[in-house]
Amino acid sequence: MSFYYRRKLRKIGKALLESSEKVHLYRGDVLTREALNEQLELADQLRAAIRDRKREITEVESLLNRLHDVLTRNGGRIYPLTSATDYTDMVIMAAIVAGAIRSFFLQPFKIPTNSMWPTYNGMTAEVRSPDEPAPDLARQVLQTLQWTWTHVIPAEATGEVGIPIVMQRGERGMEYGLRARQRTVDSGIFGTGVWKGAADKHELQVGTQLQAVTVPADFGFETVLLRTYFPEEAKLKLPRQDQDRWRVVFAKAAREGRIRSGPNGPVLLTGRQATAGKTLLNFDILTGDMLFVDRMSYHFVDPSRGDTFVFRTNTIPGLNDQYGQPSQSYYVKRLAGVPGQKLRVGEQGELFVDGKVVTSPEPMVLNSRRAMDLGYYGYLPDAGGDRYAIPLDQEHTVSPKHYFALGDNSANSFDSRGWGEVPADAVVGKPLFILHPFTSHWGPAK
User: Fold this and answer.
1) pLDDT per residue as tens digits for the range 15-55
2) CATH classification of 88-116+289-444, choosing from 3.40.50.300, 3.40.50.2300, 3.40.1440.60, 2.10.109.10?
3) Residue 143: phi, psi to the nearest 5?
């Protein structure tokens, strides 16, 4: 329980740090020096506490509460969030993307993560070996039309490449994990400082020197590391995908003595050498699918099991933060169960509905068959979470006026298994058409 609670605290902390950055950017000039300095100092303390896995939970909670109180005083209309923020975001996005299409008929929606992969794409990576040539300038220009961005990152030092990790002793012995990312802001469009966005900073060790790598927020940088430095393990077909692949990497490294402590903390040595000025990482980031959501149909017919559907999260208690503030996000998942249906996940990753393995739609059938070659790795009974979690290792009956949501990418989806059911009045609509990028996904939504 403490593991999931600590993970939830980290998530809340990252959200508070992001809010602190926004307050700093948009209200720093109207705050007193004392008020702003207090906020920035608390943000630095909280950032350090989140990175330190050994920090006492009570200390992290205290920092969260103190920063929340300061942001409440300093935040103006930026913090805390209100329902007006949610509405404003919807109107602005509809105006830019949909133009004259009225927002109450169609709503634009960008897939943020890969919880619905391979049905829909969030940000994904195409990884090349460091010694492979990157796309030439002309190709990179064409790729930007597809919202694909090339990253060729040179090494800042010479030496063996290491990946900073965390270690803790668990019930089954020593457990390893990658060091947490740090939320920051990017440099704006083409490095101009205009339209800054959220970003994540990761660190690598080259020789004895730490090198920071900044990528868009929520991008799966861990996959880039896995495919670059452990390509054979990256190909393994395992139910929990990258989670299980990293376990294989860590187990092999422990046997070979490649997990060591150093001046920068514990590190996983990759066995790969880097040379200052030469390419350290070489990859493309493909942005997530942009689609239109049909907001009208569900006013006349109820959602059906198997539909992909978009919903608001501000009325789902399991997604509230520690202070009771509702989530302001929209999620897209697959509707796995309607009121009264009984759900359970079997030992082989099958989804049972009312005691029978699902026979439609195709993505649910492929998941239940664990068609890994097609990108469907099977359902998992749990997704972490806390007191709102509904694991499906035991049969669960969907509540009246609620729906049970699952991601097609079960190992990488935080859904009803973790935060509970979706109220019927939170449903926005169903995906209608993928309008960008122009890939195999383009066209009517599945």
Assistant:
1) 888 888 988 988 888 889 998 899 899 989 989 888 887 78
2) 2.10.109.10
3) -65, -30
